[in-house]
Amino acid sequence: MPERPKFTVACDFDGFMTNLIPGAKEYYDAYVKAFGKRFKTLNPNFDEEEARYYLNAGLRTVYRQPGRHGWDNDGKKVAHAESDPTQLAKAAGQIALDYLGMQHKYKTPSKKDVNKFLGEVFEEAYKLDPIFREGALEFIEKLKENPNIRLIFVTNSKPDAVKEKLKLLLATRKTNLKLEDIEVIADAKKQDVDDKWKKVKAFIRIPGIPGKIFTRRKQYGETLIREDADMATGDNAVLDIITPALMGLYTLLLDTDALDNGPIILTDEVIPPKKSKNVRKIERDYIEKKFGTMVFTELGLAAQAIIRLA
After folding, report:
1. Phi, then psi, of 72 in degrees rounded to 5
2. Which of 34, 48, 173, 229 could be joined to 125 by an S-S link, Cβ 3.0–4.6 Å?
3. CA distances to 88, 106, 218 from 291, in Å
4. Quick one: residue 121, left, alpha or beta (phi over 0 = left, psi -120 to 50 = alpha)?
5. Helices within 106-209 (DSSP H only)
């Protein structure tokens, strides 16, 4: 008899294996410093302390207009600001650059260089040690020991960054897992949209959130096809889940209980309005109803669900 093909699970890494919420304020502090340092290379007379003022102003704008802001990639919104601390800081950064440009005394990145600028700020800020979700190592062990499952990490992070985090995870306790046993496809560019890629519809709209969500993520989609993925998992509905769901894959979202309490807070200096719309919850409810996406808040339960499917 021919060997049964393995059930291939393409997992996100940052935000799925790690918990971005407990370190949100620390990340924002690092982002502010990295933004100021990077902006000073364009404007030697810029006071790096001003970076916090402009980023906080950007953050207030995001909070006042829930669902309107996010990762803008070549004029297309590819993730909502409210989805996680890194996206929230990035959106604040985009708005801060707009505000700085209005001053007419600063040189700001050209439109085509904004993503490069913000990407460099992110890379600098994201050097903080990760906070792993409870059961992260056990999740990998359970899936790796199952003969019917192939686990691969498909992530936007850089290869070296993922390897360093995996080393830290493997060092948390004694395990038979080795770094070379864990498959990683890094720099997946889940944000890149190619309108010529016809495998899925061009965009969707989520009721309650303004604007279009562009879904033709060619590099991400072709990676899933090449690896013969059966399931995609992640913590970001728009970046990780919607494109594979439209492709017909099983999907699983790992949520965070704390986010049901309201928007992410990056600094005590800027508090969101009390009755602010919970964009992340709207995203979650939509993919759960529309695509049958499984939603869990614990990696242990996610592992059980994957094993049952396989």
Report:
1. -100, 115
2. 34
3. 26, 46, 20
4. alpha
5. 114-125, 136-145, 159-170
Task: Name every residue whose Cβ is closer than 8 Å to that of residue 79 and which is 6 or more positions away in sequence.
Answer: 70, 71, 87, 191, 236, 238, 239
Q: How far apart are CA 270 and CA 281, in angstroms?
A: 21
3-class secondary structure per residue, 153-216: EECCCCHHHHHHHHHHHHCCCCCCCCHHHCEEECCCCCCCCCCCCCCCCCEECCCCCCCCEECC
Asked if 114 and 97 count as a contact pair (C-beta separation under 8 A), the reply is: yes
CATH of domain 7-20+131-309: 3.40.50.1000
Give the position of tokens 């965070």: 256
How many Å separate Cα 265 from the centre of its chain? 17
Domain boundaries defined on the chain: 7-20+131-309, 24-125
Report the C-alpha gap between 38 and 118 in whole angstroms: 9
pTM of the model: 0.92
CB within 8 A of 121, min separation 6: which ones? 31, 34, 35, 38, 93
Beta bridge partner(s), residue 8: 150
| Token pair belonging to 200 | 């899925």
Q: Report the relative pairing of strands 70-73 and 76-80 from DSSP bridges.
A: antiparallel
